[in-house]
């Protein structure tokens, strides 16, 4: 059973919202969970709840400020309307709010994102030195180019074998660039999967791959945020 709830956090001029799921242990390392292009939908809140059950305290900031989408065209429009400068400010404030929460221990947080959020996860890890570990699930966003030279901490990349958005060429190019820059990373591509295979609310869901990926994510964050 979840004890997560919507919270507000502000930076003086703007007030933001997010879904906070405190660790079932009372305290745990902090994780920022970044939405797919659908918005802060029940699936993303469920991911935050799963982190809480695993001993972490998770915050999923609402990047669309209350809007969600059910259809790909609407989701694409919301994604492209996202102002990256504003999003960077929102993410910085979300990390600050998470670190200040009494249910969070440690001076670093992890960040994980899916689809659009996967690319934003990388982006955030390149902008904010308080991020100690980053997970990118098949990240895409044509307007977001992370400054990988400034990347903070190791990256776990989770990808699908067949993905029209984050295909083998893009994954290969990313791993080559990270290797060239000397950035610690591990990329895993799951055979027989398509984009969004982790999302159990979508037709692409692949239970076997999703369960294995989740185990790897928890091991990664436990190791890197210890």
Order of helices and strands: EEEHEHHEHEEHEH
**Sheet bearing the most strands, described?**
8 strands, mixed
CATH topology (fold) name: Rossmann fold
Second CATH tier, the architecture:
3-Layer(aba) Sandwich
Give the CATH H-level superfamily: Alpha/Beta hydrolase fold, catalytic domain
Q: What is the tally of beta strands?
A: 8
Main structural class: alpha/beta
Q: Number of DSSP helices?
A: 6
Main CATH class: Alpha Beta
- Average pLDDT metric: 94
Radius of gyration: 16 Å
State which percent range the strand residues make up.
Answer: 25-35%
Query: Which residue ranges are poorly predicted, with pLDDT under 50 across at least 5 consecutive positions?
Result: none
Distance between the termini: 26 Å
Helix share bin: 25-40%
How would you briefly describe this protein structure?
This protein is of the alpha/beta class and 226 residues long. It has helices spanning 42-53, 72-81, 84-100, 116-127, 168-180, 207-224, and strands at residues 5-10, 15-21, 28-34, 57-61, 104-114, 131-137, 155-162, 185-194. It has a single domain (5-224), classed as Alpha/Beta hydrolase fold, catalytic domain (Rossmann fold, 3-Layer(aba) Sandwich), CATH 3.40.50.1820.
Write the layout of secondary structure elements.
Blueprint: E1 5-10, E2 15-21, E3 28-34, H1 42-53, E4 57-61, H2 72-81, H3 84-100, E5 104-114, H4 116-127, E6 131-137, E7 155-162, H5 168-180, E8 185-194, H6 207-224
Parallel strand pairs: 3-4, 3-5, 5-6, 6-7, 7-8
Antiparallel strand pairs: 1-2, 2-4
